[in-house]
Amino acid sequence: MLRFEHVSKRYPDAGEALTDVSFHLHRGEMAFLTGRSGAGKSTLLKLIAMMEQCTRGSVLLDGQDITRIGERKIPYMRRNLGLIFQDYKLLNDRTVFDNVALPLVVSGYNHQEVARRVRASLDKVGLLGKEKKHPLALSGGEQQRVGIARAIVNKPKLILADEPTGNLDPDLSAEVMFMFEQFKQVGVTVLIASHDIELINHLGHRVLTLDKGHLIAS
Ligand SMILES: Nc1ncnc2c1ncn2[C@@H]1O[C@H](COP(=O)(O)OP(=O)(O)OP(=O)(O)O)[C@@H](O)[C@H]1O
């Protein structure tokens, strides 16, 4: 489903952030990406999200090499991805409904379909009834669940999460991980960058470990 083939990434005026990274994630697989600060975790996720381009190698999403697609196809390809961030990246002057609706509005869905899908997503993360609230009126755990609802509203094949539990206490972190496990159950592939070794070991999923840009365990 997701395949890295000998991928390297060098930023201008910086050393190599990733060196000759190869791995394969199957459909419905859930894996953690770990490594010290600066090991290249965010860079790897950015290559998949088409926010950065690799210097060498190929990144294949469902067999399609996303390092070689044209600029105009990128928004279309991104609809296959759900992105989740440590700091939630919500629009604080918009309601929960509007935040979750955003990817659908950008994709041009009609009003009724937007409303139906937003409610279904909010239901999946246990936030039905909070549509009219603003993010800052919610707890950190709830804000992250809004971020997750927004990530799944387009029914992505692949969810990428960058330190999604970095700002949450252990109970809320476990709750968020439980949600990811439910997405995996319905065939969504999930890749989570995390420092939280205790949580990672406890959950027992596959672990990809980066060390100074090299994949040392997968
Ligand atoms: N835009 C950029 N320009 C130049 N160098 C960068 C850029 N982004 C990242 N780097 C460098 O690439 C390397 C990998 O960074 P990256 O953010 O991918 O690591 P990380 O494992 O996600 O770290 P953290 O856990 O601290 O978020 C680091 O040496 C970093 O300084």
From TrEMBL:
Its main location: membrane. Keywords: ATP-binding, Cell cycle, Cell division, Cell membrane, Membrane, Nucleotide-binding. Pfam families: ABC_tran (PF00005). One of its GO terms (cellular component) is plasma membrane. InterPro entries: AAA+_ATPase (IPR003593), ABC_transporter-like_ATP-bd (IPR003439), ABC_transporter-like_CS (IPR017871), ABC_transpr_LolD-like (IPR015854), Cell_div_FtsE (IPR005286), P-loop_NTPase (IPR027417). Homodimer. Forms a membrane-associated complex with FtsX. Part of the ABC transporter FtsEX involved in cellular division. Important for assembly or stability of the septal ring. This is Cell division ATP-binding protein FtsE.
